[in-house]
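Request: Have a read of the protein record below and say how the chain folds.
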Amino acid sequence: MKKGISVSPGIAIAKALVLDTESQPIPRRIVPPALIQQELIRLQKAMEASCAELEQLRQQAEAKVGSELAKIFTSHQMMLQDPQLGEQIIHAVRQDRVTAEFAVYSVMRDWAQKFQTLDNRYFRERANDIIDLEHRVLQHLLGGTRAEIQTLKSEAVLVAHDLTPSQTASLDRTKIKAILTDAGGRTGHTAILAHALGIPALVGMEDLTSQVSTGDTLIVDASNGLVILNPDAAQLMEYRQFQARMAAVETTLGEIAHLPAMTLD
């Protein structure tokens, strides 16, 4: 059994899907002077494509969780369009003569590290948003693909060191039954989105990714901040019965939800 911080209540029983989110460092490569302008054009196109993607995500999030939480992606757009950030990346390409991808990687990692050193917990957790932006821009520069966890064929409990807000917002609620992350806190955008999406979630699990393998059976009791790894038959029966009772209550509530809010007298 493992304990975590509950950020979205609920019960889930499914196989684990461990998401490898380890970022590969981008090597520093020097660009010949004649190709600097070409790198700047690549950078501009990647930034524009990333902003367009964020607008799509904002619209999708607004449809799923409402306009207030969709503002998370508006803030991402604003961060990506921040003049100081853009100038630092362009300066790295022009003055240091490095590739656009290394400039993005080095500048955004520096920004993320500065956020992580702040005393304010809320601002420390924004470092994850910056890393999310870095991954998005690098995808366009390197031609890679972001994890397609939303195309799962079967139900799963998603286990990761951390999730970015865009990954969380794009999850298929019919397939992802719960979220478990080593890192994170109650005020993180991932936690807020998981709660809004109604996906049971625990954060702050510390070293869960090192103890769980893809395919392991997990019981996630997010209401009590508990995860049971490879439960026995008695535990599975207990929680399946609990799930059935919860489903019955939800069905009953659904049937009376349209009635006026009145007492008997």
